[in-house]
Design brief:
Structural class: alpha/beta
Shape: globular
CATH class of the largest domain: Alpha Beta
Largest sheet: 7 strands, mixed
Radius of gyration: 26 Å
Oligomer: single chain
Strand order of the largest sheet: 5-4-19-18-17-6-7
CATH architecture of the largest domain: 3-Layer(aba) Sandwich
Number of domains: 4
Distance between the termini: 66 Å
Strand content: 15-25%
Number of strands: 34
Length: 787
Amino acid sequence: MSISLSELHEDFGQDWLSDVRKTLHACGRQKSREWKRKLESRLRLSARDTPYSQAHGRETITRKPFICRNCGSGCPVIVTLDRDRITKVEGDFNAPIYRGYTCPKGRSLPEEYHNPDRLLHGLKRLPDGRYVPISSDQVVEEIAERLARIIDVHGPNAVAAFLGNAVSTQPATGNMLISFLTALGSPMMFSNGTLDQPGLSISLGLHGIWQGGRIHPDQWDAAFIVGGNPVVSKQHLPQNPAWQLKNLQQRGTQLVVIDPRVTETANRAAVHLQAIPGEDPTVLAGLIHQIFAQDGVDERFVRENTVGMETLRAAVAGFTPEYVAQRAGIRVEDLLAAARVLIKGQRGDTASGVGPSMATRGTLSSYLNLCIQSLRGWWTREGEQVSRPRVLTRPVDWKAQPTAPRPGWGFGMQAVGGLQQTIAGMPAAAAPELMLSDGKDRIRAFFSHGGIYYSWPETEKTVKALRSLELFVTHDTQMTATASLADYVIATYSQLETPASSHLSESVDDIHPGYAWNEPYGAYRAPVMTPPEGSDLMEAWQVYFRVARKLGLELAHINFSFTGGLSEPVPFDMTHEPSTDELFELACANSVVPLAEVKKHEHGAIFEDARAFVKSRDPGCTARLQLADPTMIEQLGEVRAENPAARRRTDAEFPFQLICRRMIPNTCSLPRPAGLVKTGYNPLWVHPDDLAKLDLHDGDEVEVRSRNATVTSFVAADDTMRRGVVGLAFGFGGRPGHDRNPRRDGSNVNELISWRDDPDPYHGMPRMSAIPVAIMAPAKPTARTGT
């Protein structure tokens, strides 16, 4: 049977996706599922190669390839336009690897772009709190003047900046901001690197790095995920995660998951350890104990490439199966089964999610996970294919040998509370303290890229700190909660109005193994839209270039590498403002594949010439991976010696533990189109048995109280939750100073969190999950004025 696209159009006269659905439905009762699958594939192949306007005789319809940047996955999409209006965004089946995948966030790009509340001009806050439009030229002039006065009186350290998730939508911004602060002489660069998963990069420093990289997923016998849910978060399986997970299972990969919830990922696990939140180090130590007890150590790899094994063996001796099971709330037989999967798997990989990072001792959890990886020898060997090959970044000399450990913290300038620079960056915990300081170290001017209001703990303190600034500048496409606290709101480009490239996600692999590509994939997309007529917008990076020029600064482009530090500066011609494409060229300088070559492939491509293989060990290499970092071993001893109940801080007054959780339609601190989250709010997920004990029903309004604050929410029955554990997603809540309506806006989890609650002694991140809370009927109406 042969069906052409033109025949389908003649039959149905509608767009090709509708044709596919109708044809498959009509044939469904007559043909097998396999036949339907082949037909669907054939129709997709035909449709993607046939211009929509040609098929329908409508010249106003165009389809353009693009890259969604609502998260780090960088999914290729096709944007359908009717003249200047986006009518649809769907997966790009012509792009390799992704197989046409998109998520609701990507498919909501039309609503995001055509948002009636979009900012088309910059805004300036007046002394009475009102905002008035301001031109781009004038805002640059005023920011430069105010910045100059602050620096003249207080020095460059009074100027600071924060890079959050929003930088992914404008990837040229990060390097320009670093260049700007460097030219000013300020080291005060903060990021979400110390608010999300700082333990990932810090533990790599303490453990050391395997230069050959991780094992390619095609070779995994086993995979181990601690507190992560790739199906929703996209971390660790970022390209079409559900398909990747299913494909791994079909090839025989055995999955072990630690998570207090039966997540979409845990549903596919061979063994799921539904542990009490915050007990990840306990369970990890118990698994290491069993790797030793069951002769699961790769003796040759450990002997040739590590130190500290016997110290680690002694440190986990007290984490017996019985102790771990009783403390973590799991079954002994499940712990032993998980250990057997890890020991049986000759090749595999480990991954840590946000959960163990936010539930305190995240660095220890990440470190123990790396120890499991090294004890099992789950690293690439000479001659094997590199799992994260470089394409648009500089070449890496992949070798079957370690890079020696290095300090994870304690260098650079000292902030407050003894916190200093870390491998993950300047501790963000210091930022609000420095804004509120009465001393010479006070931050007075602040530039923000990201939803600080929805991502920083202790909302009341955040608002107070931001309002204390002499100059607060943020960039946004709409008046967000963070923007409503700023002195100047830079109306910026939509991601659809700026070029996109895969180089930023590729570079993140230096510190986070959850992104980048397992194949030599590279992609570039030109903008698909132009700024609206009559608008006055700036890309975020342009602010720094133009303000620097006003201040008479000489900027130099600096590429930041998480493992290699700063690149050699390349001076800018300050008389010529570069284009974003020119900044991309600088960011991709000396890349494995030239950016110009990648640009030739409108759907992205696999570049076979960039495929890499691990080289042999240097004859003189003496570096070793560290299995017993003294600080980590000391912390592990504290875990074993402490009273678990006292550590959790749950009691009769606060009987539940609240965990962080994601929602597929929501990206924490980025603006969210109206209607994307169907309810409009983030429900409080509670196990049905707990609801029954509380005499609550699905949808009931409740107050969630921590030792720091109280928020209003609405319960949702969820039998995937562990009993005694409740969940609430980040990224919700109304704007400061406006009436609160939790049913419309949701609840801001950060109000429940305190910077003072069990902060990490080195990077300052507090307890942001496993928070002791109480749940009760509301004592106040839902509408009230916020801070």
